[in-house]
Structure formats: structure tokens, C-alpha cells
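Write out this protein's structure.
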Amino acid sequence: MADRECPLEAVPLPAEVRESLAELELELSEGDITQKGYEKKRAKLLARYIPLIQGVDPSLQAENRIPGPSQTMTTVPKQQKPRPTNSRDERFRSDVHTEAVQAALAKYKERKMPMPSKRRSVLVHSSVETYTPPDTSSASEDEGSLRRPGRLASTSLQSHSNVEPWLDRVIQGSSTSSSASSTSSHPGGRPAATLAGSAAHAHIADLHSAPPDVTTGLVEHSHCERPQLASVRGVPRGYSGSILETAGGKLWSRSLKLAYTLLNKLTSKNEPLLKPGDRVALVFPNSDPVMFMVAFYGCLLAELVPVPIEVPLTRKDAGSQQVGFLLGSCGVTLALTTDACQKGLPKAQTGEVATFKGWPPLAWLVVDGKHLTKPPKDWHPLAQDMGAETAYIEYKTSKEGSTVGVTVSHASLLAQCRALTQACGYSEAETLTNVLDFKRDAGLWHGVLTSVMNRMHVISIPYALMKVNPLSWIQKVCSYKARAALVKSRDMHWSLLAQRGQRDVSLSSLRMLIVADGANPWSISSCDAFLNVFQSRGLRPEVICPCASSPEALTVAIRRPPDLGGPPPRKAVLSMNGLSYGVIRVDTEEKLSVLTVQDVGQVMPGANVCVVKVEGTPYLCKTDEVGEICVNSSATGAGYYGLLGITKNIFETIPVTAGGVPVSDGPFTRTGLLGFVGPDNLVFVVGKLDGLMVVGVRRHNADDIVATALAVEPMKFVYRGRIAVFSVTVLHDDRIVLVAEQRPDASEEDSFQWMSRVLQAIDSIHQVGVYCLALVPANTLPKAPLGGIHISETKQRFLEGMLHPCNVLMCPHTCVTNLPKPRQKQPEVGPASMIVGNLVAGKRIAQASGRELAHLEDSDQARKFLFLPDVLQWRAHTTPDHPLFLLLNAKGTVTSTATCIQLHKKAERVAAALMEKARVSAGDHVALVYPPGVDLIAAFYGCLYCGCVPVTVRPPHPQNLATTLPTVKMIVEVSKSACVLTTQAIMRLLKSKEAAAAVDVRTWPTILDTDDIPKKKVASIFRPPSPDVLAYLDFSVSTTGILAGVKMSHAATSALCRSIKLQCELYPSRQIAICLDPYCGLGFALWCLCSVYSGHQSVLVPPLELESNVSLWLSAVSQYKARVTFCSYSVMEMCTKGLGAQTGVLRMKGVNLSCVRTCMVVAEERPRIALTQSFSKLFKDLGLPARAVSTTFGCRVNVAICLQPNRLGKLAEQGTAGPDPTTVYVDMRALRHDRVRLVERGSPHSLPLTESGKILPGVKVIIAHTETKGPLGDSHLGEIWVSSPHNATGYYTVYGEESLHADHFSARLSFGDTQTIWARTGYLGFLRRTELTDASGERHDALYVVGSLDETLELRGMRYHPIDIETSVIRAHRSIAECAVFTWTNLLVVVVELDGLEQDALDLVALVTNVVLEEHHLVVGVVVIVDPGVIPINSRGEKQRMHLRDGFLADQLDPIYVAYNM
């Protein structure tokens, strides 16, 4: 026997070497190791013994190796040339299917698909040598020959999943390869009324863990004389020493001992720990059937309910939390285990068994003899008939990953054993070889329960032994002349690979070879191949008996051999397309997409079976329909423990005919198996409910999809047994996701090609698109307890972005077919009809205005202050020492100040220098390139003093000249500046070598530095001839990347200052803090103009300084007790992110913001509610008033349309400063159609919008239709038009585009008030009359800005605002720091900044695609994952999406990963 176990039988090699060789062979056959690696390791193992082999004929050596599939050619008559040895592995084979897939692929021409691009650093694979291959042997947990691993997780607990876990790792001490036979045969005795009763007469061999000697393989023992005792053989691996002696012992006496201990010896707080009916967990390795039986029967004798579960290997096994939940809900407080197993469990610091995640606190009891107490002679268990009481609970994991316990009553248990006895014709003293897990399912029913009832001998082959020696079960059948064997198709497949060296095995003794996973449609090829090979070794065809079972219904059907009256076996070739619609269409094997299924025999004795519709009312199916098989029998489970609702649905179904009449009186149990009843009442199973994916109206089985994927020759790229298929719901439909483990040596291109071919094959054979195909590094998918993949855990990780794939292919374009139809633009209703419609509906025209300027001020004052230079001179004369400006540096110290007189004098010196040195004349344009500071302000007024037109320009960044200097040069050129005023340092920079690399430095106009200009006065200060003369140019780069300069006249400038002064109540005694950039827009106006006009003191905080001291702005506000402060969103974001955790520290430093009445965010966009709210919440601790923060709105045509000051000053005393800003919720879907639909807070698709501040005095706003230019009604979305004395007077461009100017600055309504001249802002928004009243007692009109028209994306006929898509994307995963979207051709491109590890980058691809589909009904075309900081943001904190787009198209982003969604 010993040598028979060894494939290299010609050479006397030591057992360890032979064992290692066997493992190597298995690894090669499984594809866990390359041919090269295999040869290298094998040569190493055999090096010492090579001389012994020298004489052997090389061909013999080849014979003696366990063959690769190339040598099992006999099973493949169709193939002409022998296949290479590492070719596809037999167990997953269905030649027909493979050929079908190859034929389908041949139809596709090699279509070029865009390869995803990936940064090299992401590809770091460990070298093949250092890499441990995943144990794919386990992988094939649930497979048929054409492995359907897909189900694993979900079905691992299904009827046919009994692969043993790899306990050799955990329980080194116990006999991991105990080929144990436990049996009993006792001639007389009372009839077995209950199983516990029959256990009373069953004896069992005792198993000692004496260290055995494994050098000789499995050694036989002569049977003991007493006929009723069978010996138990156990060979723990890795021990040496004396051979394991087996001593006699009795199941009855040991179970009795355990029952006594459980009931009488365990106490907690002087109460017995357990009462009859309590649940007890059984935690036993697959290598110890004996101890398991003792524990199981001990519980039954003590009237306790055993709950067998897997041995937890680590603190966080996949799915272990759900098992813990089951134990908790069953109220389990005690776990039984073996000594060796208990030693192997993870321990806490205290040495106690660790508490596993989600598990209730458990006491652990070791059931080995020495821990139990012998009962007194007169003690007997209460052996009354239990009937409907629960006997045991078997756990089952559902498709979603939740674990439930199926309760089986004593009556059902007995009925099941009797039915199996009758169906399988078991008789006393027969020998059964069991390869299945004996703790659950068929392994438990046959190997532990029915065998004891019939007093049979059972030989258990643990999984660990099967892995080392796949032939062990066949050898045991042969040596014990076993009459029955219980296997799965995987075991048959393994033995096919290993059988070549075995000349003298005979399977002629078998009368039944029960295939436990026969209900898997792909098991047929294993059965056929096995029969093909072993028929010559005595295996009779009628012996193979597939059976179908499920945790709920126990055994559903089993094929009987003819001598037990079974009909001849049949197989059906069905059209997969038909099956996807739930109907049976017989097809021919020549067709591409067929599924061949074998029958699983007839139903169990005493059971009725019917087939009902899967969804809805359980109507009976027609004979040509596939439905769920239901069983009515006394031998089914009773329910799910503690779950009455679903129990009723599953265990008490009443099938009805089409007319609604119940089929029978008794309730049926749903089995979770999909199939039909064929001729001779044979049951056919085509799949499981757990693997069902409903895409559109069609149903697909995950197993079938895996089979197709595996038929695409994947040996080189992925691991066979490590493929998971599941569906995720995106946009109201199931989407198919396929995840596989990639081999470390597969190249990017190969994998990508394999993925593309899999997509084509599945599309061709199943006519269904795969939504996402992901490859993960080897060994990273969560494993199920019985080997294989834990599907629900894999799905969970996929949805949470925790899968970390190394390759992803998304195909949303092909498989998302249920998108709403693109919007068809209807011919617009004309403007006149609109007005009439609004009148009829009683809606007012959407028009609003700020307070009237005329009432507010006497006109002399206004006339006096028409020109800002005059104001400055007047202030210098009347209040020379009044401080106007304070500039702070990063440390918070004042670096420069300016009083009225100082500023006036500095301005005079600049004017003198301009006239003398630069020889400019009135009306020339002068570029001011200064860092933020008093010099900039002085230079500005210097220009006005000599009649020049200043243009403020942000200086180039010394570290980033290449990108910032061209913008400076562009503004200088476009504005036609005759001179550049700047500081010495910047002047050197503009003329430096580095600058010459970026721009042509020879073409600069005169550059003048103002650092040390002589103190000179100008002869006369220039006075403009009329208020409409140009005062300054305001240049800004819009978010769409367009440089736009607007002209501001003197009249507009002073009107702007006047409006701001009135709105914010600014007067000389005020101090305000400004943290804005002084180069354009409202930032420039507040920094350079307002203080001079209103006389208040401005504390200037350059935003750049916040980079080195985030708290600078808030400290300044607190120190100077500023009641009014202005900032930008980027400043607010820096404070929120940078100071979030430091509010305590700031409070200690004395920062107090209770002085702030209003903090205004200067913006040209929709208010960012989330940011302003989190800012308010965060700094509430520092005294910031709840309602202080508000937003402003301005744009190119008018830099200040709205400002929202809080109640302050004189108006606050009168209580008339106006209402707080209001927030409304609009339906985002209606916005896409240019409609405003107000909804409740929290309703789906709601988007909060807050009003952008109060409209400034003198400003009028109207909402106009974007195309017809007619006025719109209240709460209608349109373009915001504005009319005000401080509108800019036009664009300043080189080209003088008059049409653009007319269109933007002098627009008129096409209907209604056609006289007023309006400026078009280019922003979409709406006006809504609120319930609040403003200062004048009128109802307040709130202006809501939705977004810039230039930025919107026109997709599928609808208008999308990028910010909405970006907000959804940022919420999708915590590693997404920032996001920007734009369109490229007609594809939506999403750029995501990854704030995390590069290997997590690919997790984001699917999540981004999902969220955009789900929330916006858009298919993402390209997902680009980049480093933080790549998305360009301007000084106002706005994303420069067009710059980003240019960078993407020019390939300058250096992305981590680019995924092209097909």
C-alpha cells in the first residue's frame, strides 16, 4: 500500500520526498506553479537520489510522473495533436463548451481596444520566485468539471460544498490526514427508535494523538478480533516515532460521558450553564470525525442543539462576522472542540482563545477523554421521543453574505436517515468512503447520521490528505472493498490527474458512487471523464449517482442504480438563450451556446416535488419552464432559526395552479435549486437561486459565466479556481462583475487581451455584457472556510473600494441599456407666450433690485467723489494721519502700513517716475506686477495721478516660471501696456535666464522698479475730462481658460465703491480684514479701492502667507477685532482642512471670533454650502456667530452683484438690515432640463442651493431665457442679466470683437421691457420671492446662482453642471481628495485625485463609474487617477477644468492610471 501511494514507485524514495513530489504535481496540475518552476523544484527534491534512477528508462520515468492533462488524452477523442502538459486542467473542461467559446471568439476580428495606461510604480509585482501561489486546490470548492467557482461564497454553504479547510495549517497536532473509519455493528439490541438510541449501540475507535511514524505512508492494521470494532487509522503529517496504535472505545460511552459533563459539571454563578434545548457550537477540524461524532451525539443525548461551524483560522476570516452573528442570535455560550484544535486557535494576550470579530463571548470545552467526567452508574439521559424539537442547526450563507441557521428537527433527522437508507439501499456493516466534510450537508447525513443508524463502517478522508494524495479515496475503496463512496466532482477530477501510476486499483466493489454536487450542471464532464478512465478498473457506469441537496430541504433527489429500481440515466442538451428566459429548449451539442445537464435521479422516498415560478406568487411552472424546485416531505429543515418571516416564505410555501388552487394540503419547502422535472420523473437542475443574476428580463447563472470565462484559455494569466462572478445593482438593474486572481508573471498586455477575449466570449455565448472585469493580485481574494472564494465578501470589497485590483476593464457603454432616452429639445415657446403664460399662472416676472441709490445719499457728496484720485487727495488733506492699510506677513507682524498722506505721497512719486523715466503719456496702459502689498496700491494711484490706465497682474511664481510667466506676458501684450511697474526682485526675475526659456524676454516693454524712486512731486495731478473715461483694466482667466479683460470707467469705479460702502456700512471708524488676492474682481476692489473711498482701515492678509501659517487670517481677525472680513473659498478650505483639529490650541492662544458680524466669501460660482457650513460649525468653538458666514456673487460684466452683510451698525439698531440668506432644495434631475423644481430637504436627487447674498444698492437683476432672450417667471431657470451703474463698460481685447461686446454688455430683452440695457452674466440662476421682508418692508427676492453657462456640459440632450457630478464622485470613496470633469469628443472624462496608496487607485474606477451612472444617468468614458494637487485651481479656489483638459490631451498629467471604459 505504501508504495502504491507513491507515484514514483520505481524508486524507493523516503515518504517526505514523495509527499513533497505529490504536492508539486498537484500544484502543477492546478496551475499554481509554472512548468519551469515545477522542474526546478522537482530536480532539487530528487538531486540526492538521482544515481538510483540512472538505470531507469527515461520513458518509464515519464510514465511514473503524475500526468498532466496531456496524458489523459483518452478522454478527448476529437483532438488530433497531443496538448502541451500545462494545458487546461480537466476538471473545468467541457470540450463542447471550450470549442464553442473558441468558435465564438474566432468570429470577432482582433478589435483594437484602448489599453488602460498605468504608471510603472503601480506594477510592482513580486518576482515569481518569491511568490507563493494561491492554493487553488481549495479554489475549486464548488465546481464541476468545468469549475463554477463563481458561486463560492454564496454557495459555499450550499448543498454541495464540503471541501475541508486547510487545517494542516492550524491543527498541526491532530491527525490531519486521519483516514478514519468509524463504525459500529452490534448484532442484537433494541430497534433504533432515535438516532441517539442507535448511537447507544454504536462503537467507535478511540483516537490517540501519539506521534505516529509517517515514513511508511498509511500502514494497515489487522482488524481486531471483535467483529463489531473497526479500526481508526490516523496519520498526522510531520511526526515521526512509533506507529499510531488504535485502541478500542465506544461512541456510546464517550457520548454519554460528554452528555453528563455538559448537563452536570458546567456551571456559571452556581446555575447550570446549559439547559436542555440550548444551542452549543461544535468547532472541529475536518481531520477528526471521531471527536466530532462524540460531540454531536453527546449533545443529542443531553438534549442540546449542536451548531457545527468551521474552525476560525484568524481573527478576521471572511464571513466570520456573520457566523458570529448566527452564534449570537442562537444564544450560543459554549463551544466544543478538540485539544489539538483548541491549541491552534488564535489566542489573546491572556492565553484565552481570542474573541473573533462579531462573535458572542464563548466558553471553550475540550471534549477529549481526560476533560470529561464519568457519569454515575444510575445516570441515564432522558431518551424520550423528541419529535418536532430541534435536533441540530446547520449554517448556510446567503447570496448577500448573511449567515442563517437551518433548524432540523429530530423527526426530520430520522426521516432523512430512513429515506437515505431506502434510496441508497444501505445495509449493516457496509463500508462507506466519505471525502466530504462530515460536519454538514451530505457528509453529515451519510457519514455521521445514516451510517450510525445502519451500523456501517465509514472511512473519512480529510481534505488535507486529498490534497497530498488525491488517490487516497480510491485506494481506500479498493483496500476496504467499500460498497459506497461519497465524493464531489472535484475529487473525481483530482484522481483523474493522479491515476496514471496506479495499475492495480479496482473499483469493482462500488455499487454507488454518490456525487454530492451532481446538481451543479458542470459536474457532468467530471462524471463522464472519470467513468472513461476508470471503467477499465472495474467501475460500472450505473454506479455513478449524482444527487441534489440543499440546506433547507436536505437531500432532494438522488439517482438510484438499476438494482434499486432506478430508471436509466438521461442527459439534456439545453439552449442557454432559452434558459435565460426561463424556458427549456432542447438543442444540439453542435450549437455554440448550450448547457448539457445530467439528471440527479428521482425524488426521495416519501417526498413530493413541484416546480414553481421564482418570483412572486408560487404558481406551478409549465412542463417546459425552468423554476425553483420545491419539496413536500417529512425530511426537510424546519425553518431559519429565529427568522419567522423568511421561514414562512421558504419552508411553508403553498404552490398554486394557474387558477390559484393550492396543489396540496401540506406546505412545500423551497430548495433554492432551479430546474425542471423530465421524463421518468427524473429531476434536472440547471443552477442555483444564489447564483442567479437578472439582467433586464433575462436570467443568467453565475456558474455558466465562469465556465465561459474559463474556456478562454486562461492558464497563462489567471488562476483557474480563483474566479468570482456576482452581480451588483447599478441604475435599477443587475450588472455582472467578474473578478479573477492574476498570475504574477502575466504581463499587462496579456491580461488585458485575456480580459477583452472574455468579454467577447460572454457576449457571444450568453448575449449579455459584463459591466466590470477586475484582476487582483494572486492570493488576495477572501477565501471561504471550505476553500474557494468567499463571493459575498468579494462583492462587499468591490462595492466598498477595498478589492485593490491590478487591472480593471469597465464596459458600461455596452451593458447599460436602460438609460433614460436622451432628451429631445422641443421647439421653444416664444417669449411673448412665456409672459402670457406666467400672467395666466399668476407668476410674477423674475426681476429684483437692490435699494435705490437716490434715496440714500445727497448728490453733492456723490459728485465730489466721482473720481478716486480726488478722494485720496481730499483724505490726505483732511485726515492725513488716518491709517488706511496694514499689511501682515506669515508671522502675523505688520510689515508695512499706509496712512492717507503716506499713500498720497507714494502715489505722487510713482506718477513722477512714470512721466520722467518711462515717458508715458495720459491714456497709456501700465502693467503693475507686484506681490500683494501697499506698493501695489500706491502704484495704482500713481497711475491714476498721471492719467495712465493701470492693469494689475499677478507676479510669476519663481519656482514655476514655465507655467506662470506666459500668463503675465500674455496680459501685458493683450492689454497693450506701454510700461511694466514692479519691484527690483521681480524685475530681475522677468529678465532672468530662466524667464528667457519660457518667453521672449526681449519684447518686454519698459520695466521700471519702484523700490527706490526719488522723492518728487508731480506738477499737476491728472483730472479725467469725463466720468466715462477708462479708470483701469481688470484681467482675469476664467475657469474655462479664457483670458478676459474688462474696462472699468471712473463712474463705474466710484459707483462700485459707493454700493459696497452702503451695503457693508463702511465708514472711517471701521476695521475690516481682507484675505483675498488683489489682482481682479471684487478682491481687487476691496483691496485697492474701497478703503480710499470709504476711509475705513483694511487689514491686508495675503492668502499666499497662509501656506506657511494657516491660522494667520483668523488670528488677525481676532487681534484687530474686525467686524467685517472677506475671504475666498480656497482660504476657507485651507482653514477647515488645516485647523480642523487645532481649535483648542487656537483658543489657548486667545483667538476669539465673536467680534465678527459678517464673513463674506468672494466668489464667481454657486455657493459651496457644505464648505461654509463646516467652516461655521468648526469655528463656532472660537465664538464665530452661527449666521456670520455668507457668500457674494460677481462676474466679469459686474464684479459685485450680491453681497450679504449681516445685521450691523445703524441699520441693525433699526432692525432693517434685511433677512438671513435662505436655502432651498431643488431637484437635480429637473435642473438638467433647465427647470427648477423645489423639493423637501432630504428627498432623493435633492440639491441644496443657498442665495448668493443680497443684491447691492443700484443693481437690477432679471432672469432671461438663454435662447429666446425673453423674461422668465419666478423660480424659472435662465441666464442672470444685470443692470447697474457699476457694470463694466465692455471687454478689452486686441481684436475688438464688437458683436461679443454688444451681446454681453448691451443686451435687450426680446419682449416686455425692451428699453433697459442689460449685461449678460453668463451664469444660470433663478429668482425666488421669499416669505421674508427686506429693509424697505417689501418681500425679499432671493437670487440663486446655479452655475456658469460656459462650464456646463451638454450630454444626452441635457445640461449638466460639473460641480454636481464632482460632488457625487468625491462622496464615492474616502481616498478621493478632489475631482474634476470635462468632455472630450463626446466622452465624459472624470479626473480624480487619489489621497491614498497607489495600489488602491484601481478601486476607484468602478466606484466612480457606478456613482455617476446611478446619480446622473451618464456613462463615464475615461477615468483618470492622478496625484493630489494635479487639478489646477485658481486664486479664487475655482477648478480650471479647461487647463486640466489641455493637460490631459497633451499627456502632461503623469496619471497613476487611465481607464478607458469601453
